[in-house]
Specification:
Blueprint: E1 5-7, E2 10-11, E3 14-15, H1 27-38, H2 40-47, E4 66-70, E5 76-79, E6 92-94, H3 103-119
Parallel strand pairs: 4-5
Antiparallel strand pairs: 1-6, 2-3, 5-6
């Protein structure tokens, strides 16, 4: 079982992830993704902490097996759901966590990685 985590940041009541970049995201959202992807090995130690966590991470089952981001590719670690054009709906889905993770540690680690991406303007590269 997966524990796909949808994330968005807001400031002063406004969504920070909506913009005019790839898949309708802002530059801050792309940097956030860059932070997640840069720190993915460390994140997996927290977000997928058991040997059983990796039994579902196999190609061919829409599992997140590629260190990449995409609006359509479900094998990418980060996916951008395109369910609405509303700025309020813009978010990033990190698909690697599973329910065996400690939620307090997992959510803190994901947020720290994403914020590091924004702070250091980490480029996530091209989408897959």
């Amino acid at each position: 079982s997966g524990m796909h985590v949808h994330q968005s940041l807001w400031k002063d009541g406004k969504p920070l992830f909506a913009g005019d970049q790839y898949a309708g995201l802002s530059q801050e959202a792309l940097w956030y993704i860059g932070g997640i992807l840069k720190h993915i090995n460390s994140l997996l130690a927290i977000c997928a902490p058991t040997t059983n966590s990796y039994r579902r991470l196999v190609p061919g089952y829409e599992a997140p097996v590629v260190i990449a981001y995409s609006a359509r590719n479900r094998s990418a670690a980060c996916r951008i759901p395109v369910s609405s054009q509303s700025p309020k709906a813009k978010r990033v889905e990190f698909r690697c966590p599973d329910p065996s993770a400690n939620p307090y540690l997992a959510f803190s680690a994901m947020l720290m990685a994403g914020l590091d991406g924004i702070k250091n303007k980490i480029d996530p590269g091209k989408p897959s």
